[in-house]
């Protein structure tokens, strides 16, 4: 995530991505997401982050998932 939401959430103060290069979370098409996802796996607010991205349809890496992965998660949830 990039922290530029219109309404920042309190949990964002604990976001690990706020401490590193924000470009990692917005790789070019076909670029690696591995480093960002590795940081997300250690992030204490991963669940909140993922929930927000699913709710708001954010771009980039959020909660350790890519946009495509979140799209598949939503499709699976809607089909269930
Ligand atoms: S889960 Fe990843 S994108 Fe979300 S706040 Fe944590 S480090 Fe940032």
From TrEMBL:
Post-translational changes noted in the entry: Upon Fe-S cluster removal intramolecular disulfide bonds are formed. The Fe-S cluster can be nitrosylated by nitric oxide (NO).
InterPro entries, alphabetized: 4FE4S_WBL, Whib
GO annotation, biological process: cell redox homeostasis; negative regulation of DNA-templated transcription
The keyword Magnesium appears for this protein: no
Recorded GO CC terms: cytoplasm
Pfam families: Whib (PF02467)
Keywords, alphabetical: 4Fe-4S, Cytoplasm, Disulfide bond, DNA-binding, Iron, Iron-sulfur, Metal-binding, Transcription, Transcription regulation
Region (Disordered): 61-80
Location relative to the cell: Cytoplasm
GO molecular function terms listed in the Swiss-Prot or TrEMBL record: 4 iron, 4 sulfur cluster binding; dinitrosyl-iron complex binding; DNA binding; metal ion binding; protein-disulfide reductase [NAD(P)H] activity
Keyword Cytoplasm: yes
Cofactor: [4Fe-4S] cluster
Binding site for [4Fe-4S] cluster: 17, 40, 43, 49
Cofactor notes: Binds 1 [4Fe-4S] cluster per subunit. Following nitrosylation of the [4Fe-4S] cluster binds 1 [4Fe-8(NO)] cluster per subunit.
Function, as annotated: Acts as a transcriptional regulator. Probably redox-responsive. The apo- but not holo-form probably binds DNA.
Family: Belongs to the WhiB family.
Protein's name according to its UniProt entry: Transcriptional regulator WhiB
Taxonomic lineage: Bacteria, Bacillati, Actinomycetota, Actinomycetes, Micrococcales
């Amino acid at each position: 995530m990039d922290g530029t939401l219109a309404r920042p959430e309190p949990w964002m103060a604990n976001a690990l991505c706020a401490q590193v290069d924000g470009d990692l979370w917005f790789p070019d098409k076909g670029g690696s997401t591995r480093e960002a996802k590795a940081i997300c796996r250690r992030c204490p607010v991963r669940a909140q982050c993922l929930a927000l991205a699913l709710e708001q349809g954010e771009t980039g890496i959020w909660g350790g998932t890519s946009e495509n992965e979140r799209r598949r998660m939503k499709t699976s949830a809607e089909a269930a």
